[in-house]
Amino acid sequence: MSNNLLDIDRKHIWHPYSAIGKQQTLFHADSAQACTLTLKDGTKLIDGMASWWSVIHGYKHPVLDAALKAQIDKMSHVMFGGLTHDPAINLAKLLIDITPEALQSVFLADSGSIAVEVAMKMAIQFWTSQDNMHKQSFIALERGYHGDTFAAMSVCDPVNGMHSLFADSIMKQYFVPAPSSKFGEACNADDIKSLRDALEQHHESVAAIILEPVVQGAGGMRFYSADYLRQARLLADEFNVLLIFDEIATGFGRTGKLFACEHAEITPDILCLGKALTGGYMTLAATLTTEKVSKVISQGNPGVFMHGPTFMGNPLACSVALASTQLLLDSPWQASVSGIEAQLKNNLAVCTTLDSVEDVRVLGAIGVVELKEPVDMAVIQQSFVDHGVWVRPFGKLVYVMPPFIMTNSELDTLCSAIYTVISQYHKPS
């Protein structure tokens, strides 16, 4: 029966960045508990990906399960136009309480990509509400990633990113080199000069700078200087543009701070959150902005913010997001992330001895082994499964973002598998 279902899947269902009809390798998940995935054939895998970085509390957490069950007994969904409800209100209040103080307005979006779309719309509408129709563009970092929808694609890396196919269809933006200054270092003069030069040349047409603070995620898993964020904040103010932080991947403790902007002790004008917001249970994202931005938008023409999806503020998603965020705050998450960071640094260091490895880097609960050559996904994915772990590399990167509840033993197994698989891996000729 399982094989028949997989045949149906391959014939009819698109997976992320996949092709219909091709014999792609699929692993049939049946259940999940804590940090373990169980496949249909009984194979158990330690999940090093936290379901694309979102399942910070592990799977089937009793607190989150209970929150969903309680909410479904009341109402699973109600339109957010003209109606409101406790889960949305309480979630918004909590997000306002835990993010930088100036962020006072919340838009509840459906996904990370949409949160970025909303942020970009906010930035443009902020200026058009002041009768400034020229500020329609954005400055973004090369090697960045902000999502798969059209506006989000336009601020992803324009050359080496996954969306170059659409280059003629998306908005044209301004790009500056990704910071070369490493995390923990002061920002070098060249990094700042590139951003300043772009602003000097284009600020009259730029609505905002958008970047992923400290960690460039899907664009290369790069860690860069927090000082660059401080300089970006100063330059944004100097040249009268807004600053957008995409913390969809970095938010909720992943880098060792609750939000990555805290490494620089600055506040963006607009903040995008997603992924771990619901603990990986349901799709939900949030875009927060300052009172200054929301007031201008609300008081200018047309006097409302022009976005409103059907499932906005879904009560089920809001209820589990509220429970997940409170669970994180009530837990010793700083110690957990610090412990994961120390163990990743210690256990992955041995990978630097392998000829195929270019670099090993760790920040918070993020571990990255960068190879010299891209991997063959089908080959290396099977090898990881054979070693009892779920790790999904991309390009040259073998990386992990484990749940915060992962035990020392599970993390040891995960790191050992990474070393063993990489040491045995040979790209087919």
Cα end-to-end separation: 35 Å
The biggest sheet, with number of strands, parallel, antiparallel or mixed sense and barrel status, is: 7 strands, mixed
Give the CA-based shape: globular
CATH-level-2 architecture of the largest domain:
3-Layer(aba) Sandwich
Radius of gyration: 22 Å
According to CATH, what is the topology of the largest domain? Aspartate Aminotransferase, domain 2
Can you identify the CATH class of the largest domain?
Alpha Beta
Q: What's the count of strands?
A: 16
Could you list the spans in which at least 5 consecutive residues all have pLDDT below 50? none
Overall number of structural domains: 2
Q: Structural class from helices and strands? A: alpha/beta
In CATH, the homologous superfamily of the largest domain goes by the name: Type I PLP-dependent aspartate aminotransferase-like (Major domain)
Mean pLDDT: 96
Strand content: 15-25%
Helical content, roughly? Answer: 25-40%
Number of helical stretches of at least 4 residues: 13
Q: Strand order of the main beta sheet, please?
A: 4-12-11-10-7-5-6
Q: What is the helix/strand order? A: HEEEHHHEHEHEHEEEHEEEHHHEEHEEH
Structure notes:
The chain is of the alpha/beta class and 429 residues long. It has two domains: 152 residues, Aspartate Aminotransferase, domain 1 (Alpha-Beta Complex), CATH 3.90.1150.10; 257 residues, Type I PLP-dependent aspartate aminotransferase-like (Major domain) (Aspartate Aminotransferase, domain 2), CATH 3.40.640.10. 36% of the residues lie in helices and 17% in strands. It contains 13 helices and 16 strands. The strands form four sheets. It has a seven-stranded mixed β-sheet with strand order 4-12-11-10-7-5-6, with helices on both faces. It has a four-stranded mixed β-sheet with strand order 1-2-3-15. A three-stranded antiparallel β-sheet has the order 13-14-16, covered by helices on one side. Helix 3 runs antiparallel to helix 10, helix 4 packs parallel to helix 10 and helix 11 runs parallel beside helix 13. The two termini are 35 Å apart.
